[in-house]
Specification:
- This is Transcriptional regulator.
- It holds the Pfam family Trns_repr_metal.
- One of its GO terms (molecular function) is metal ion binding.
- InterPro entries: Metal_Tscrpt_repr, Metal_Tscrpt_repr_sf.
- The protein is mostly helical and about 90 residues long.
- It has a single domain, classed as Metal-sensitive repressor, helix protomer (Methane Monooxygenase Hydroxylase, Chain G, domain 1), CATH 1.20.58.
- Helices cover about 90% and strands about 0% of the residues.
- Helix 1 packs antiparallel against helix 2 and helix 2 packs antiparallel against helix 3.
- The longest helix is centred in the middle third of the chain and has 36 residues.
- It is elongated, with a radius of gyration of 17 Å.
Length: about 90
């Protein structure tokens, strides 16, 4: 993973960590349930966006290299593994 993307992803994770701390604070403060759910939804979307960025990087680097080097079965296997993981989230 290139340094620029890695730094961008680390920044996203720090934001997500802050959002999770915010959720903890909301619970401690007995915040309105709908507000907590709204914040939790924002965290899920942020994590999903993080996963998408990592997946895009993987497909455009590792999987492309596997295909170029003739490792088609390995490339397909990895794509299917990620696809299966994404189906479990639904």
């Amino acid at each position: 993973m290139n340094t620029q993307l890695k730094n961008k992803l680390l920044k996203r994770l720090k934001i997500i960590a802050g959002q999770v701390r915010g959720l903890q604070g909301m619970l401690d403060a007995d915040a309105y349930c709908v507000d907590i759910i709204t914040q939790a939804s924002a965290v899920k979307k942020a994590v999903s966006s993080f996963e998408d960025a990592v997946l895009k990087n993987h497909l455009s680097t590792h999987v492309v290299e596997q295909i170029k080097s003739g490792q088609h079965a390995k490339a397909v296997s990895e794509v299917m593994k990620v696809y299966s993981l994404s189906k479990k989230d639904n």
